Amino acid sequence: MVKRGQIRFFDIVNFLLLGFVAFASLFPFIHMASVVLSSPEHVIRNEVGLWPRGLQWDAIGAAIGDERLWIGYRNTLLYLVLGCCISMILTILGAYALSRKSLIFGKPVMLIIVFTIMFNGGMIPFYLVMKSYGLMDTIWAMVLPSAINTYNLIVMRTFFQGIPVEIEESGRIDGLSDFGLLPYIIIPLSKPVLMTVGLFYAVEIWNSFSAALLLLRDSNLFPLQLMIRNLVVVGQSGDVLETSVASGRTVVLESLKYALILLGSLPIIMVYPFIQKHFEQGALLGSVKG
């Protein structure tokens, strides 16, 4: 009876704690959605909490009607597809090579790679290197500098090391070389970590801001996050505010800001539930071994 009581008490505390964490995580999105869907008078008087007041869709319509938002979406999707393909190919090849015990100078190379996690050249050297390579104001400025993430490389390498050697030996008996083992045996067995690392790269590219702010000058190449920043912070949303009138009502700037933030955040958040199972398994198995 004591053990049952302890377990029941733990379950209650755990449920309350996780419920609080979930509410704290969802509250900003719920509040922003309520402000976006509320009428201007309630927003100006700061009367909006968890539920919208004076339901209207003007802010959403104004945000969707801004062409710059869709330019940002277009560029971000282009960077996402191109960047994920390049990053996954390079990370898979690098992780597979580093996971082989027969690799010459494997440990020194791995130490050099781990060294980059703790130390980097800084913003100014990064800018000068990108400029010297002629990557300024190009698509490649958003793709190549972050092509390989050290943490993702280590996670995938650790996962590859955990694949039983017997499976690889059976493939070699069938005549497969390293170039055959990777596509026919290693990759099919590594779907969890591939989904996990792919999500990491997708989120990183989707949220890319500092590199774009540093390397891009052409507004037609701006990714979504930088475009939203210009619309929300710099004040370029003033023209939107003057023209976004629906049914004789003007959109409040705060509602428009929240609408832009929601439109920029929801797509990548909506992808996560579909790969949650693979994400949890891949992150766990790829982080156990050293």
From TrEMBL:
Membrane topology: Multi-pass membrane protein
InterPro entries: MetI-like, MetI-like_sf
ABC transmembrane type-1 domain: residues covered: 73-262
CDD domains given in the database record: TM_PBP2
Main location: membrane
Pfam families registered for this protein in UniProt: BPD_transp_1
Transmembrane segments: 12-30, 77-97, 109-127, 139-160, 181-203, 258-275
One GO CC annotation: plasma membrane
Compartments in which it is found: Cell membrane
Residue ranges of coiled coil: none
Gene3D superfamilies per the UniProt record, alphabetical: MetI-like (1.10.3720.10)
Keyword terms of this UniProt record: Cell membrane, Membrane, Transmembrane, Transmembrane helix, Transport
A Gene Ontology biological process term: transmembrane transport
Family: Belongs to the binding-protein-dependent transport system permease family.
Family annotation (PANTHER family): ABC TRANSPORTER PERMEASE PROTEIN MG189-RELATED-RELATED, POLYGALACTURONAN_RHAMNOGALACTURONAN TRANSPORT SYSTEM PERMEASE PROTEIN YTCP
UniProt-recorded name of the protein: ABC transporter permease protein YtcP
Organism of derivation: Paenibacillus albidus
Lineage: Bacteria, Bacillati, Bacillota, Bacilli, Bacillales
